[in-house]
């Protein structure tokens, strides 16, 4: 099984980070950047993140995996129908990629190709179901596979979203459909993670809490206004406004989040958006 | 009802640039109700054409332009005016435009874009609630269609972009899954939440659609 699944099974507190494929074919910077990710269990490779067209995450994840970096391949339903999704998953398995983060995906409206036709042939629950089927040796129409993939499928959740019961019924569906771990949307308040972990307890599926490095109050307000599912609370906005060194404040906030996440859940997912050099300071 | 709207005038100027004499066709059904191709709009369009130095040989508002045979019959009543024109401009939905284009040899210029199958909230305000998917789930979703009113057409609950019950693509729009959840709660039943909804059968929406009540439905 994957290193990530072994670490989670062993009760180790895992740390994941993420890298975006380039817009273009030059993989050198991404392959070099990932070496800077010290103390990381696995690296998420994002899939046309924010609906911005970039190189296939499968291609970058395959190269990283071959270079010895543990990856979590992100796959969204926005750009592929059920045939393309199955095909890419089998391709990922052929490259030795096991960890998956299976997502619906941000709407095309938000990205650099707003005129594109969004696909959403499947939703994230159905994508998980299909992945479980592939792992059992069958495609979506029940045809047997010659060579069966071994995956460690994960899913996403926004633990702070309301109404909580509505969000949680989907989490339960994802677990029923084979989600073996969760990575969360950026989390800012201990209470919301506590509430979520209490609900998760009977399901016994590890949770990796999303920690976003915010660099300034301006960035925080931009996130609130423009990024679906991200709400930086007022108390943190005030903290940025008071701070003489906003980056230092952002690192301190991320460090505090990691510290209470250690008490509550099974890992953290660091979103440092180009400031990967700050990861050691956040994990201090 | 089919919602339609006038194409940008610059686009129409371009499309009509090679013609001098035009016959105008409107529709008394949907295009009249959404004020894109009724008597009033045909009249206004005629005035605009005159401003563009075009001759209008005549006009007709067909009862239901989507009715192929009726459209043919109504056009025959205007045979001479149609014959005199270089092209026929149709202010009707895409169906209506094609009823006309299948009936006459003359060039047909569509003046409208058809946007969706709309419910009327109040006069002049239309909302898309059904996308004619051929595989209706409304009985499980308390009469609210997620295929249409969820921007992603998700079938198993809201996406991660839902914020305070609103949709990620437009904060003005309420999240379809929140509405479904609330209404099912009020009805005291789990509805669609009782099961994992499998992938949709899109073969029921294979294009082009055909439906016949003749010969045993084939």
What general outline of chain A do the C-alpha atoms trace? globular
Q: Span from first to last CA of chain A?
A: 29 Å
Strand line-up in the sheet with most strands of chain A: 1-2-3-4-5-6-7-8
Tally of DSSP β-strands of chain B: 9
Lateral arrangement of strands in the main beta sheet of chain B: 3-2-4-5
Largest interface: A-B, 39 and 27 residues
Please give the largest β-sheet of chain B: 4 strands, parallel
**Class per helix and strand makeup of chain A:** alpha/beta
Query: Which regions of chain B contain 5 or more consecutive residues with pLDDT less than 50?
Result: none
Report the CATH architecture of chain A: Alpha-Beta Barrel
Reading the helices and strands of chain A in chain order gives HEHEHEHEHEHEHEHHHEH
Radius of gyration of chain A: 18 Å
Number of strands of chain A: 8
Summed up, the helix count of chain B is 8
Query: What would you report as the Rg of chain B, rounded to the nearest angstrom?
Result: 22 Å
Please characterize this protein's 3D structure:
The complex is a heterodimer of chains A (284) and B (218). Helix content of chain A is 40%, strand content 15%. With 284 residues, chain A is of the alpha/beta class. In chain A, β1, α2 (28-33) and β2 (42-45) form a beta-alpha-beta unit. The longest helix of chain A has 19 residues, at 246-264. Chain B is α/β, with parallel strands linked by helices and 218 residues long. Chain B folds into two domains: 2-116, Rossmann fold (3-Layer(aba) Sandwich), CATH 3.40.50.1860; 133-204, no CATH class. Chain B is built from eight helices and nine strands. In chain B, α4 packs across α6 (94-103). The two termini of chain B are 26 Å apart. Chain A binds chain B through residues 77-78, 82, 103-107, 109-110, 118, 120-126, 129-130, 140, 156-158, 161-163, 165-167, 169-170, 173, 176-177, 185, 228-229, 231, and chain B through 151-165, 168-169, 177-178, 181, 193, 196-200, 202.
């Amino acid at each position: 099984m994957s290193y990530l699944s072994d670490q989670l099974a062993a009760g180790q507190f895992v740390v994941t980070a993420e890298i975006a494929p380039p817009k273009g074919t030059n993989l050198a910077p991404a392959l070099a950047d990932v070496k800077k990710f010290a103390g990381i269990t696995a690296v998420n490779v994002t899939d046309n993140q924010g609906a911005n067209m970039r190189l296939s995450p499968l291609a970058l994840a395959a190269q990283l995996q071959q270079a010895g970096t543990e990856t979590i391949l992100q796959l969204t339903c926005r750009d592929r129908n059920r045939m393309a999704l199955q095909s890419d998953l089998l391709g990922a398995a052929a490259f030795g990629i096991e960890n998956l983060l299976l997502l619906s995906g941000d709407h095309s409206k938000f990205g650099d190709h707003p005129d594109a036709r969004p696909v959403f042939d499947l939703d994230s629950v159905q994508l998980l179901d299909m992945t479980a089927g592939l792992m059992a040796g069958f495609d979506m129409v029940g045809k047997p596979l010659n060579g069966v993939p071994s995956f460690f499928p994960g899913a996403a959740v926004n633990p702070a979203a309301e109404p909580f019961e509505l969000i949680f019924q989907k989490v339960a569906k994802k677990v029923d459909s084979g989600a073996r771990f969760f990575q969360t949307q950026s989390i800012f308040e201990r209470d919301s993670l506590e509430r979520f972990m209490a609900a998760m307890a009977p399901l016994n599926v590890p949770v990796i809490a999303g920690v976003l490095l915010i660099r300034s109050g301006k960035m925080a307000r931009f996130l609130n206004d423009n990024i679906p599912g991200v709400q930086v609370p007022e108390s943190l906005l005030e903290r940025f406004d008071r701070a003489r060194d906003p980056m230092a404040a952002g690192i301190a906030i991320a460090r505090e989040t990691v510290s209470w996440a250690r008490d509550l859940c099974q890992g953290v997912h660091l979103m440092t958006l180009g400031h990967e050099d700050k990861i050691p300071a956040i994990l201090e | 009802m089919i919602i339609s709207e006038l194409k940008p005038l610059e686009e129409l100027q371009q499309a009509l640039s090679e013609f001098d004499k035009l016959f105008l066709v409107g529709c008394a059904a949907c295009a009249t109700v959404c004020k894109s191709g009724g008597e009033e709009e045909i009249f206004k369009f005629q005035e605009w054409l005159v401003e563009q130095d075009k001759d209008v040989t005549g006009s007709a508002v067909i009862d239901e332009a989507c009715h192929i045979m009726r459209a043919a019959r109504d056009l025959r009543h205007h045979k001479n005016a149609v014959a005199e024109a270089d092209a026929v401009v149709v202010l009707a939905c895409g169906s209506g435009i094609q009823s006309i284009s299948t009936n006459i040899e003359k060039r047909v210029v569509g003046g409208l874009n058809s946007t969706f199958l709309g419910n009327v909230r109040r006069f002049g305000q239309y909302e898309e609630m059904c996308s004619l998917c051929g595989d209706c789930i409304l009985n499980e979703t308390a009469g609210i269609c997620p295929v249409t009113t969820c921007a992603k057409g998700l079938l198993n609950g809201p996406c991660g972009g839902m914020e305070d019950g609103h949709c990620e693509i437009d904060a003005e729009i309420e999240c379809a899954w929140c509405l479904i959840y609330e209404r099912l709660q009020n009805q005291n039943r789990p509805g669609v939440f009782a099961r994992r909804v499998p992938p949709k059968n899109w073969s029921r929406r294979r294009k082009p659609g055909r439906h016949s009540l003749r010969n045993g439905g084939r």
